[in-house]
Write a structure and sequence with these properties.
With 209 residues, the protein is α+β, with helices and mostly antiparallel strands. The chain has three domains: 63 residues, no CATH class; 48 residues, no CATH class; 57 residues, no CATH class. The strands form three sheets. A three-stranded antiparallel beta sheet has the order 1-2-3, with helices on one face. Strands 4-7 form a two-stranded antiparallel ribbon.
């Protein structure tokens, strides 16, 4: 078969659609945490823990006055052997929880068509056509929950110079939150000092408890 003449026509199309939805909801319970911490300090009278905390504060104030006046610290009250549980956990904490939901939909379609005619030397006409269609659909939903808790433990600074306390560029290692890991704590400028409580009375402060 000898082809004397031919004609071909090609058509193609492609479409793509994408729809994405994203939702996030965050709940922060810092107000409830602060109320709970304040309520924990209202101890039952029969346990006398509130009285122990009051005595401890009196001794701390007496020690500060002794440093300012140069006189020996005197106190008729005996320091408690151990801080009450409510005083040990008296830090403020913030808890949060974030729920995230993401929904994704995709649709893709491709079509190809071809049509033509071939004429042979003996006068015959042969027509042909071809069509091809491809499509893809995809959808997924992802949900995640992230939550955490941060407990603030700030050291107490005593200022002797009368001006506002200032930090220096030097730092020292200290386990402030008593979790077994040391933090880089900035040193204070001249005239200020960190107030510490030697709970086990060994002459050294091991951590921030």
């Amino acid at each position: 078969m000898k082809i004397e003449e031919s004609s071909v026509r090609l058509d193609a199309s492609h479409s793509y659609a994408r729809r994405q939805e994203w939702e996030s909801d965050t709940v922060v319970s810092f107000r409830e945490a602060i109320r709970a911490a304040d309520a924990a300090l209202e101890l039952p009278p029969e346990k006398r823990e509130a009285e122990d905390v009051r005595r401890l504060l009196q001794d701390l104030v007496a020690a500060i006055l002794a440093l300012l006046s140069g006189e020996k610290c005197r106190s008729d009250e005996r320091l408690p052997e151990e801080l009450p549980p409510a005083a040990r956990r008296g830090g403020r904490a913030i808890e949060w929880q974030t729920r995230t939901r993401e929904h994704l939909e995709e649709h893709e379609q491709t079509t190809v068509s071809a049509a033509g005619e071939v004429r042979t030397a003996d006068g015959r006409a042969i027509a042909f056509n071809m069509e091809l269609a491809m499509c893809r659909d995809y959808s997924c939903t992802r949900e995640s929950v992230e939550q955490g808790r941060v407990e603030f433990r700030d050291p107490l600074v005593v200022n002797f110079a009368g001006n506002a306390a200032a930090l220096s560029n030097k730092r020292f290692c200290f386990d402030l939150d008593a979790d077994g890991k040391v933090e880089q704590i900035p040193e204070l400028a001249a005239g200020s000092a960190y107030l510490c409580f030697d709970s086990d009375r060994d002459g050294r402060i091991a951590d921030g408890r």
